[in-house]
Write a structure and sequence with these properties.
By secondary structure, the chain is α/β, with parallel strands linked by helices. It has a domain at 47-151: Sandwich (Immunoglobulin-like). Helix content is 21%, strand content 21%. The chain has helices spanning 2-29, 33-36, and strands at residues 51-56, 63-64, 67-68, 75-80, 88-90, 119-123, 130-133, 145-148. It has a four-stranded mixed β-sheet, with no helix packed on it. The longest helix is centred in the N-terminal third of the chain and has 28 residues, at 2-29. 21% of the residues are buried. Copper (II) ion binds at residues 57, 61, 83, 85, 134, 136, 139, 144.
């Protein structure tokens, strides 16, 4: 009875141990070519995903940076500063206007001082250009635009 139990226990743990060993080995030796062109902040052990940050309205009517290259599957975090700004998606042909009813829109974020706790996170699904602007009255016209994966 006890021997049988130990055999079952051994059979159960063998693949688990193999998987753990294999997993840790591959994460240390595998290099992903796509991540070499990006500056990945602190190296996280298991994931090649990167998150880039954009400051919205920290220095006037600006997205900073205003041009980003983001690989599919990676994320962009928008951090809002005072000025009641937003992040909205336009088309190239019609800037400063919503690209569609289902386009990206963060809503308006209006911290009274400093950086808002509200962070808008956008996941990039492909390499198509994403044209962005601030939908607050006059801000886009003042140059508050950005682009992800410019053509
Ligand atoms: Cu704005």
């Amino acid at each position: 009875m006890t021997r049988m139990f130990h055999v079952i226990l051994a059979l159960f743990w063998l693949p688990v141990l193999n998987a753990q060993y294999g997993g840790s080995e591959s994460s240390t030796t595998t290099t992903t070519p796509s991540s070499t062109s990006q500056s990945s902040s602190s190296s996280s052990s298991s994931s090649s995903k990167t998150v880039q940050s954009v400051d919205v309205g920290e220095t006037g009517f600006t997205f900073k940076p205003d041009t980003l290259t983001v690989s599919p599957g990676n994320k962009v975090e928008f951090h809002f500063y005072p000025g009641n700004h937003s992040v909205a998606q336009a088309s190239f042909a019609n800037p400063c206007h919503p690209s569609s009813d289902t386009g990206i829109f963060s809503g308006f974020v209006a911290p009274t001082s400093g950086e808002s706790d509200t962070v808008f996170t956008l996941t990039v699904n492909d390499t198509n250009p994403i044209w962005l602007y601030c939908a607050q009255l006059g801000h886009c016209q003042a140059g508050m635009v950005a682009v992800i994966n410019p053509p």
